[in-house]
Amino acid sequence: MKTIYKIAKTELQTLFYSPIAWLILIIFTFQCSMAFSDLMSGLVRRESLGYGNYNATMGLYAGWRGLFTAVQSYLYLYIPLLTMSLMSREFGSGSIKLLYSSPVTNWQIILGKYASMMVYALVLMGVLSIFGIYTAFAVKDADIPLVLSGMFGLYLLICAYAAIGLFMSSLTSYQIVAAVGTLAILAALSYVKGLWQEIDFVRDITFWLAISGRAGEFVNGLICSEDVIYFLIVIGLFLFMTVIRLQSRRQKSSWAVNFGKYAVVWFIAMLVGYLSSRPSLMSFYDVTRTKQNTLTPNSQDIVARMDGKLTITTYVNVMDDYYWIGMPSQKSYDLRRFRQYLRFKPDITMKYVYYYDSVKNMKNLEKRYPNMTFDQMVKRTLESTGLDTTKVLKPEQIRARIDLSGEYNRFVRLLERENGQKTFLRVFDDMIIFPGETEISAAFKRIVMKLPKVGFLTGHGERNTEREGDRDYNAFTQDKPFRYSLINQGFDFESVTLDKEVPADVNILVIAETRQPLTA
């Protein structure tokens, strides 16, 4: 430990003797100060105008414009400038030979230099802590755990960047090459999320490898074991590879031996990463005061009642407007829409069925594909989507499996329990499109408990639940693409007449603007 401490101390002294460390610290402080001042002035302006500020801490640090969100976007520019000289300088000046000839192990060299970067990262966090302290005094009931969670995520992100930069610095004696190489690796880890998402096996690997957005959960106040382990894996992976690189320079060995060492390290990292990403092995801690990253207690109670496995089968009509949600390239993103539910019920299984059939929006299709038959439209659509046509069911095949005509052959999910209870979960014709916690929990309620039933009195000129129009209640009661219809909000309904007794299972009776007298 003393050797590691001495190397780290020497590296820090060298770092702060150069203008780069000070320049980065000044620029970082200036950028953070400007961003925070802008955000704080916005909150003060809203307060002075009488609008109030709900969850001000979240607005200051998280969300689309928060301070920590902004910091994430430019951290990658700083770290390569700090790490480019860690090992390149030793190779370029020849001082690495002195280290090799001294009683110092490769691990001590690497850990000492990496420890210096961890200390510098703490200095950057110290800058951010100033804003946190100010927030604690300036904002009433400030959510300080949210601030600490975001700082923890950013610290892990910097440490991961530093490990990557240290490895790249060990590959060359040219500092600029090391810096550019680090930027290239960071860019690759950012964009790998979108690569080969159509291939089932590769999709999980590339999506997990992506470093972009990993600190986002921390910034929003949710600490997930998968994200923590991811950063530890990335740090450990590149530190191990750096040590292997030094060993190959210190003790000449064949390329096959070196390749084998790298392969073993990567295999172990991928195995641990795969295990850590399994829903049943993941742990969560929501640090926010309002627990806004967690299902509400009512939703948790609904999920707790759902014993046995749950299968969510997504039926994707490639001719529907919302087919893109269920495309193979979108499956990883689609799964994350149920992340909060997977936290409390990790045995949810996702399946996808692709088919083509007639849709309600045929006029739109005719505009897109003029002078084409339906079969020609299907052929053109399949060509543009790149789907394997052998896996796309024909109309007669999908109808033999399930009747989706009641759902207008739209994009829809079938929720099915082991005991056979099932219901549909829909997307909606609005700006949001996707169902939120309210709609998902309402669908879950339908297969775990008896829903309240609303009765609508008919026979006296009341508003009609069957007719569509401004006066009638079709949209309010049963319009499936309408988010706020009763059937999508956890209610059943039926029409009630006075020529017989009101059914006992009707919990609410609606008498909507009668136009004829009610007679006994």
Automatic annotation (TrEMBL):
Keyword Nucleotide-binding: no
GO molecular function annotation: ABC-type transporter activity
Keywords noted in UniProt: Membrane, Transmembrane, Transmembrane helix
UniProt keyword Lipoprotein, yes or no: no
GO cellular component annotations of the record: plasma membrane
Protein name: ABC transporter
Transmembrane segments: 20-39, 60-79, 117-139, 146-168, 174-193, 229-247, 259-276
Highest taxon in the source lineage: Bacteria
